[in-house]
Specification:
The protein is mainly beta. The chain contains three helices and 28 strands.
């Protein structure tokens, strides 16, 4: 038995060396490591988790485009020039690519007081006042560059911890039972017992339960003082202002999961997600109905109409690559809808966009 194993080992070594273009004479001793062998004390199985999701070696590759959506950029400096619908900002960030930037101000731009979050008129901003602004990632190639401002903070006292404007990526609880809010700013905020949570310009009552993936908020961090106890999971927020929710819901998706607004959706054998041309295909009816939408099917024309109450949201024919959504031009699907075993599948990114859904990693 030992002789047989020794011969097998020598044969395997020889084949490996010849396959790599090496001669037997120059071959070095080969160590055979089983797939489940410990690596630095840890057993790593073939289906080891990558990030948060277990990805088998044979899993087809796909990418969710929404996860690469760029967040608005934070710039700050002095308001060197204030015009009607424009502010020229002298950039005080030493790492900034440009010494100044022009902020375009539209009806959608929010100008807020940095201390209390209340609205401020453009006319009330003083020249040379310190301004923090969140602008779109797209800028003109002019000098100085021009970008659309999403939110502007003014009225900033000296040595004041300026609040952060961000979109929530995920929410979890830490070991102490506190809610930790992870944002698209690579900043996390801890909601403590004394954290004040309030809405923007409404009298609605909001609580920590209203903070969910996709929520846009303004978070005031606790000032770091000598002797203050740091928070391991992020910055302790003294208060948070929540803006109106822009999405219709949020979804966690994968080859082995579909959850809408935190609720796992049960899928039948014929409804399992799959990959087609790099797109993750999801069962359309299960996704839409979980958002509270109604699906109307016309078997003769093979047309699917999506309704929200009595209002038509959009419609498309199975197998088609275009969706009629009331716009001047039809929406182009990344991958044509496909009927498989009687179930209509549509790419995840298209379902996110058509239904206004936030993707949760």
């Amino acid at each position: 038995m030992k002789t047989t194993m020794k011969k097998a080992f020598v044969t395997l070594t020889a084949v490996s060396c010849l396959a790599c273009g090496a001669s037997l004479a120059s071959a070095q001793p080969v160590q055979i490591i089983p797939i489940s062998a410990p690596i630095q004390g840890e057993v790593v199985p073939i289906s080891a988790p990558i990030g948060e999701e277990i990805v088998p070696i044979s899993a087809p590759a796909y990418e969710i485009a929404q996860q690469h959506k760029l967040a608005s950029i934070r710039v700050y400096g002095q308001a060197a020039q204030i015009e009607e619908n424009r502010i020229t900002l002298e950039n005080e960030n030493e790492n900034a690519e440009f010494p100044s930037i022009v902020l375009n101000i539209s009806e959608d731009t929010r100008i807020l007081n940095a201390v209390d979050g209340l609205p401020v008129k453009l006319a009330d901003i003083r020249e040379n006042e310190t301004v923090y602004a969140y602008v779109g990632p797209a800028m003109t190639k002019s000098l100085p560059p021009i970008s659309n401002a999403e939110l502007i903070l003014v009225g900033i006292p000296a040595d004041f911890a300026v609040p952060t404007y961000a979109e929530v990526e995920s929410v979890e609880k830490n070991e102490a039972g506190q809610v930790v809010v992870h944002t698209n700013r690579e900043e996390s905020f801890v909601v403590g017992e004394d954290t004040a949570i309030f809405p923007f310009l409404t009298k609605n009552i909001v609580t920590v339960d209203d903070i969910r993936p996709g929520t846009k908020l303004l978070a005031w961090p606790q000032a770091v003082l000598d002797g203050s106890k740091p928070v391991a999971d992020g910055k302790l927020a003294t208060k948070m202002m929540l803006f109106a929710y822009d999405y219709k819901g949020f979804a966690e998706v994968g080859l082995d999961k579909l959850a809408i607004n935190g609720e796992a959706i049960e899928l039948g054998e014929s409804e399992q997600p799959y990959v087609q041309n790099g797109q993750l295909m999801l069962p359309f009816r299960k996704f839409a109905e979980a958002l509270g939408l109604e699906i109307k099917w016309d078997g003769e024309s093979r047309n699917i109409t999506v309704l929200n109450g009595d209002a038509t949201v959009y419609s498309f024919k199975t197998g088609a690559s275009q969706v009629e959504n009331g716009g001047e031009e039809p929406y182009e699907l990344r991958e044509a809808s496909f009927v498989k075993d009687g179930v209509t599948f549509v790419a995840a990114d298209d379902q996110f966009e058509l239904n206004g859904v936030k993707y949760v990693k």
